[in-house]
Amino acid sequence: MKRYDFFLIVVTIVVLVGIGTVSLGGSAYAWLATGSGADWKATLGYGSYVEVMNSLSFPFFIAIILALALCIPKRVVARSRLVLTTSAVFLTGILIGAATVPDYGLAAIMLFSIAIQSAVLILTVFGGKSLHYRTSGFWSQIGSALLHLGLVVFLFDVMLLENDSLWHSVAFWSATATITIGMILAFYDRELTRLIKSRSAI
Amino acid sequence: MFASYEAARLIVSEIGTVLLWGAALLATATAAATISGYVPRARVWMISGTVMLFFLAFITIIYFHSRIGSLLPLINPFDGSLLGTYKIPPWIESEKLLFWSLIFGFMALIVNIKQRRHSGLITGVNLLLAAMSLLMLFASNPFSPPLPDFHAEILAYNDAVASGNPQVMGPAIGQTVGKMMGYYNSAYMWIHPPLLFVAYAGFGITFVGSILMLASREKIVDQVAYNYGRVGFISLTLGLLLGYPWALMAWEGQSWWWDPKINMSLMMWVFFGAYLHARLYRSRRKMWKVTGVLGAAAFVALIATYLSTYVIPGIHSVAG
Q1: Which of B295, B196, B273, B276 shows the shortest CA–CA distance to B236?
Q2: Cα(A183)–Cα(B272) distance, integer angstroms
Q3: How far is the alpha carbon of A108 from chain B, nearest alpha carbon, in Å?
Q4: Contact B53/B105 with Cβ under 8 angstroms?
Q5: B236 FRET partner, CA 20 to 30 A, in B130, B167, B172, B316?
Q6: Torsions phi, psi of A56, nearest 5?
Q7: E-only strand ranges, chain B
Q8: Cβ-based burial of A180 (10 A; exposed 0-12, middle 13-18, buried ≥19)
């Protein structure tokens, strides 16, 4: 499992650096394009730029969702079933997307991820024995579960809920709270444990 | 009242510039003393002095903004009613570099006190502080002159009102009130930028630690880099997240997602995310150096993001 965890981390790093490189390339292109002096945003070239950026970044965002989908079920599903589970989730998403509209397929994949991550969070809080984490601290495990859940909810919000003010607000503020609390717990596990122990000793 | 505002602007400019000169000279002297190994005991006092001068400069800015609030109320020229008063946060235009330097100065002081035996860390941190103070003084001085863009907007508004032409006054009022409410007085302006500059300050220490990680395999260097990196990442993530609803509100109907500054911010965040992921496996072969490279590259991405505001034209930019 350790080797597999490491592989997932390397994949995550490569995908993140890939997103960063696409973003940098986009900025460099925009810099050159605006340097021509014309109001670039009003030209057809700007529309093409947005399309190219969408198509270049899309595989990386799908890859990050895939990495999350691989990371998330690994904590509740045995490694041997991992590829099967992830493939099933993505295949279902693709089928729904093909049968209806692509957004519904994306929504299905993300809602599945949200459901699984919520289950992981509940199992972590109640000390589920089937769970596997890279870190051993209780608070960092809860923090990690919250952080992953919040990221999926945030991606869901950005990709699908921007035009729905009520659900966008609910999703955005839930994701922000979840991510922030998750980061604090994940990064300050030792300090938190020490604080709780010293309080209970008093 | 406008004459009083101009008088306050002049005084603030003079006091602030003197304070920044003092901070820059002291920070440079501290960096030189750290490299040469002289006056090791006085070093902490010298850094404290630099931070104090930054703090006084910051207070000067707060004073100036409070004077703007009381001396420049926006009055409707048609009926004399009050349209609003400015509540400008102290990190507008070039002032943001002062706020960043102030927070970085506090963090540098803590590193100087807690890691006093580690000359590499202290030298790196003190050099970075000196570089920031010199950069601010010569390239981005918030007091020379104070708030030039805001001042130009006020002058344009006054000219429009003085023209007495309703067709000129109407749009000028709309534009000035809109910018006051949506930008200067926006609640997001009080939260989004300071969170980012706290992050930038923390990542400055992470950068120094990451560079040292490439040179040697010392646990303390990694730990210090991580301690400030985690503060930075929490602050950066929250700051960027809170920029999202503001963007939806302020740029409604406009295309902003692939704007150069947004791209650069995304790049910076993913690079710091990659650094934190790599660090989980720093004990594995080669991952120590990968962590160091990513930590350093992420800071370079941060500098590029900061500069892009001034260089690349866009919706989130002052360039062009």
Answers
A1: B196
A2: 13
A3: 24
A4: no
A5: B130
A6: -70, -40
A7: 74-75, 82-84
A8: middle
One-character DSSP codes across A167-184: HHHHHHHHHHHHHHHHHH
pLDDT tens digits for range A89-125: 888 888 888 888 878 888 888 888 888 788 878 888 8
- Could you give the percent of chain A with pLDDT greater than 70? 86
Query: Can you read off the two tokens belonging to residue B33?
Result: 């003393």
More confident residue, A77 or B16: B16
The conformation of residue B319, written as its DSSP 8-state character, comes to -
Predicted-assembly ipTM surpassing the 0.85 threshold: yes
Residue B45 touches chain A, beta carbons under 8 Å: no
Specify the amino acid at residue B43: R
Asked if residue B27 has pLDDT above 90, the reply is yes
Alpha carbon distance B320, B207 (integer Å): 31
Interface residue B248 vs chain A (CB under 8 A): yes
A133/A136 Cα distance (integer angstroms): 7
Give the list of residues 6+ apart from residue B158 with CB closer than 8 angstroms, or none. Answer: B2
A64's tokens = 């990050």
C-alpha angle B138-B50-B150 in degrees, rounded to nearest 5: 45
How big is the CA angle at B199 (ends B277 and B206), to the nearest 5 degrees?
Answer: 55
Picking from A34, A41, A187, the nearest residue to B230 by CB comes out as: A187
CA distance A85 to chain B (A): 24
Looking at residue A132, its pLDDT comes to 60
Which residue type occupies B44?
Answer: V
Q: Does B148 touch chain A (CB under 8 A)?
A: no
3-state secondary structure of B133: helix
A77 CA: distance to closest CA in chain B (Å)? 22
CB B176 within 8 A of CB B59: no
Nearest to B270 among A16, A172, A180 (CB): A16
Contacts of residue B42, Cβ cutoff 8 Å, sequence gap at least 6: B33
Task: Assign B82 to helix, strand or coil.
Answer: strand
Q: How many residues does chain A have?
A: 202
